Task: inverse folding
């Protein structure tokens, strides 16, 4: 399959590109810069220069492909306005890609977060929340899945709060960055809230499986660890960086504060059974031991 991918140089995307190429697919990847283009071509992909806001470029990439994986998301989301802009940009991109594929029965795989469900781990059957700071993202993903009725094999891989590799990435990575910046390995609330996690290389396998065979209109959970307590995550970070571990106000985490404070475990039981996906790489708590002081 010839696959067009956006976000192909990120923590998830670079792993997905390698997974696709290693399993007989060819890759055309959106590249925002010369540096990204060089990285993609060194990996064995072909680069298509453009930005996520370049809708004509996105349509061109999709038109050339047998399938699409959409992973790109704005890099500046440290304020509510920046986050809202990134969500709107992603929504427009998904709409353009979906329209290009109408009636073709070609696959498109996009990404979202696992939903929050009070009192239990979220499952693949739970709907995405359409309110809150990232509700717009859920609405865009839902609209793409609705194109299943219009001849698009649209699917979504729901990612946990932390996608990690070598101790970096995801919400845990943001905690590491905050600890380095403030001198405290902090966590909001009592720290008992749980975050699910997955290694990027395991997530990449799931993206390939979904692209190759998942039915239209379906959602899947890339969850290896159902939920690690945030206080435990912060404790490892503090030990690795030789910093105190303390509760800090959720406001210290900017627009992500309310999300950081939530208990958000998630299950992938259906995904594993239906697609035969089995994570094999280190857990988050194991991977955090790679943090360098």
Result:
């Amino acid at each position: 399959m010839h696959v067009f991918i956006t976000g192909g140089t990120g923590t998830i995307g670079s792993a997905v590109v390698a997974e696709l190429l290693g399993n007989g697919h060819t890759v055309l990847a959106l590249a925002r810069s010369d540096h990204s283009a060089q990285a993609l071509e060194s990996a064995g992909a072909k680069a298509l220069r453009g930005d996520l806001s370049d809708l004509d470029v996105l349509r061109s990439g999709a038109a050339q492909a047998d399938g699409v994986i959409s992973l790109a998301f704005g890099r500046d989301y440290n304020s509510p306005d920046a986050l809202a802009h990134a969500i709107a940009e992603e929504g427009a991109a998904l709409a353009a890609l979906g329209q290009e594929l109408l009636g073709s029965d070609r696959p498109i795989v996009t990404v979202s977060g696992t939903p929050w469900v009070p009192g239990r781990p979220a499952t693949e059957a739970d709907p995405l929340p359409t309110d809150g700071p990232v509700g717009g993202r859920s609405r865009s993903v839902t609209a793409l899945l609705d194109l299943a009725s219009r001849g698009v094999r649209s699917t979504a891989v729901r990612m946990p709060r932390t996608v990690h590799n070598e101790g970096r990435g995801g919400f845990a990575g943001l905690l590491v960055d905050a600890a380095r910046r403030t001198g405290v390995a902090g966590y909001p609330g009592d720290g008992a809230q749980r975050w699910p996690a997955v290694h990027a290389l395991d997530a990449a396998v799931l993206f390939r499986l979904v692209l190759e065979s998942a039915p239209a209109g379906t959602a899947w959970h890339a969850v290896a660890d159902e939920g690690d307590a945030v206080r435990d995550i912060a404790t490892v970070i503090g030990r690795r960086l030789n910093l105190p571990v303390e509760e800090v106000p959720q406001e210290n985490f900017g627009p992500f504060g309310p999300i950081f404070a939530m208990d958000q475990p998630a299950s992938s039981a259906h995904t594993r059974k239906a697609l035969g996906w089995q994570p094999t790489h280190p857990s988050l708590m194991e991977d955090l031991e790679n943090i360098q002081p």
